[in-house]
């Protein structure tokens, strides 16, 4: 088990977050079991590690020796679809191109073929 100082999120902050999300009052609201608490703390640590590792790779690809906020923003936007409000990310606009399914492509081809062949009036 890791010490409190080694964690990204403290048990106290996690408890406050649970109370805030669940609307629990002071002390009598829902709480997490120790196993779930430990699991959530591990998930938070893993998430931060993954984001920072990916952001460092992006910074390295840019040829920089220092990590910048835009590296973290890019990682969060592209990898997790998370946008942080308050930070200008106009220069980092990421667009995900949607790949149509084969069924959709076949339907659209059939529609186009019907337009070409079936659109003429036959008497």
UniProtKB/TrEMBL annotation:
What family name appears in the similarity comment?
Belongs to the TAF12 family.
Q: What is this protein called?
A: Putative Transcription initiation factor TFIID subunit 12
**Chief site of localization:** nucleus
Key word Transcription regulation present: yes
Report the domain of life of the source organism.
Answer: Eukaryota
Q: Which GO terms describe its molecular function?
A: DNA binding; protein heterodimerization activity; TBP-class protein binding; translation initiation factor activity
Recorded hits in InterPro entries, A to Z, give: Histone-fold (IPR009072), TAF12 (IPR037794), TFIID_TAF12_dom (IPR003228)
Q: Which organism is it from?
A: Glarea lozoyensis (strain ATCC 74030 / MF5533)
An annotated GO cellular component of this protein is:
SAGA complex
Q: Which Pfam families match?
A: TFIID_20kDa
């Amino acid at each position: 088990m890791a010490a409190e100082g080694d964690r990204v999120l403290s048990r106290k902050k996690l408890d406050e977050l649970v109370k805030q999300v669940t609307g629990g009052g002071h002390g009598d609201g829902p709480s997490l079991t120790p196993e779930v608490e430990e699991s959530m703390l591990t998930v938070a640590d893993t998430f931060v590690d993954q984001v920072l590792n990916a952001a460092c790779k992006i910074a390295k690809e840019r040829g920089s020796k220092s990590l910048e906020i835009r590296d973290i923003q890019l990682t969060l936007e592209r990898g997790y679809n998370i946008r942080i409000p308050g930070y200008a990310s106009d220069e980092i606009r990421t667009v995900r191109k949607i790949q149509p399914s084969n069924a959709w492509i076949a339907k659209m081809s059939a529609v186009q073929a019907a337009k070409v062949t079936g659109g003429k009036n036959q008497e």
